[in-house]
Design brief:
- By secondary structure, the protein is mostly beta strands.
- The chain is built from no helices and eleven strands.
- The radius of gyration is 13 Å and the shape is globular.
């Protein structure tokens, strides 16, 4: 079992920055991929960025060049550094972890609001 707790959301003006954190507890060594998803009001949840155990990253086109995902294995924490934020980035951001047995884990989410 893995538990994920997000933090770092809040209200920011367009053009500003925020850093989200996702602290993982439990059987962290079983995790092979972690990611950030987001869900805006009235929209489906979408993938924002992924990071593998080896550090390989992938990003949605909408955030490339603005967001950076990273992980600190010593702290069992994944980060999402968000810069040049836009109002359309407003959403609840969820931390995701997938283990080698095919089990998916989700955090409860943290709200990011970008004002224009």
């Amino acid at each position: 079992q893995v538990q994920l707790v997000e933090s770092g959301g809040g209200l920011v003006q367009a053009g500003g920055s925020l850093r989200l954190s996702c602290a993982a507890s439990g059987n962290f060594f079983s995790i092979y991929v972690m990611a950030w998803y987001r869900q805006a009001p009235g929209k489906q949840r979408e993938l924002v960025a992924t990071i593998s155990g080896g550090g390989s990253t992938n990003y949605a086109d909408s955030v490339k060049g603005r967001f950076t995902i990273s992980r600190d294995n010593a702290k069992n924490t994944v980060y999402l550094q968000m810069t040049s934020l836009k109002p359309e980035d407003t959403a609840v951001y969820y931390c995701y972890a997938g283990d080698r047995a095919g089990v998916n884990y989700w955090g409860k989410g943290t709200l990011v609001t970008v004002s224009s």
